[in-house]
Amino acid sequence: MRGWAGWTAPHAPRPLLLIGRAFDGQPAAPGNGQMLALQASNRALVDRCHALALAQGGHCEGPPALRAHYHPDYYGAYFRDLDGNKLGVCCHRAE
């Protein structure tokens, strides 16, 4: 059992919705156990989004980096907004 379920539109390359346990194993709570993830067209856009979020007062939850535990080309960054919501920006393209 994977511990999560996903939904994908026919012929889509990636899931559009995933539901699962909190990644850190802690109980789900506001800001932990849910995350909005946005897909960027390139890695430079991931970098810019993360920098902009921090410049506006957001908190870093993971700097832009390759994250091979997802797949070899997954480049992502994570941050929390001023209300504590976790967001991510990622690029799946090899560059």
From TrEMBL:
It comes from the Bacteria. This is VOC domain-containing protein. InterPro entries: Glyas_Bleomycin-R_OHBP_Dase (IPR029068).
